[in-house]
Each structure stands twice: as structure tokens, then as C-alpha cells.
Amino acid sequence: MNYFLGVFWSLMIPLMVATNDTMAYFCGRSFGKTQLIKLSPNKTLEGFLGGAFFTVVAASFFVGTLFNYESFICITHRIDMLPF
To answer: Distance (Å, rounded) from C-alpha 63 to C-alpha 84?
Structure first.
């Protein structure tokens, strides 16, 4: 029995959130000039766009890498309706 089935989803979500937060911070500090919202004065449009861009890049790399390993793919044909 392979115990790593579906581990992909347990890794993907937290890594993408961490990537977005980190890259938004660095892009905002490096290039940020345009305030995003008044509620949070340190948030910038450049940080938001940089975080979004690097999250998409990281997700593409992460998915492309992990889908090469069968143990990280959630196998849907094994899921059945247990209560029924």
C-alpha cells in the first residue's frame, strides 16, 4: 500500500500560500510605489502583482515536477461511496 497517495494536495496549498506571501513582500519592498488599499498602507499593487506572478510560476513548476511521481497523484478510481 502506498501511503503517499494524495500527499500532493497536502503540500501544494501551503507552499503556494507561502510563495505568494513571500514574493509579495519582496516585490512590494523592491518595486512598491502604488498603494493597494487604504486599510493597509504597506500593501502595494506591485507586491500584489509580483506575488501573483511568482505563485503561478511556482505552481507550474511544482505541478510539473510532482506529477512525474505516481505516488503524489490522487487516484480517483479508488475513491468510493463508503457510507452507501
So the answer is: 33
Contacts of 58 (CB under 8 A, 6+ apart): 15, 16, 19
| 30-67 confidence digits (pLDDT tens) | 999 999 888 888 899 999 999 999 999 999 988 777 77
| Pairwise CA distance, residues 70 & 68, whole Å | 6
Rounding to the nearest 10 degrees, give the CA dihedral for residues 61, 67, 73, 76: 110
**Closest C-alpha among 6, 24, 15 to residue 59:** 15
pTM: predicted TM-score of the whole model, two decimal places = 0.71
Q: Which amino acid is at 26?
A: F
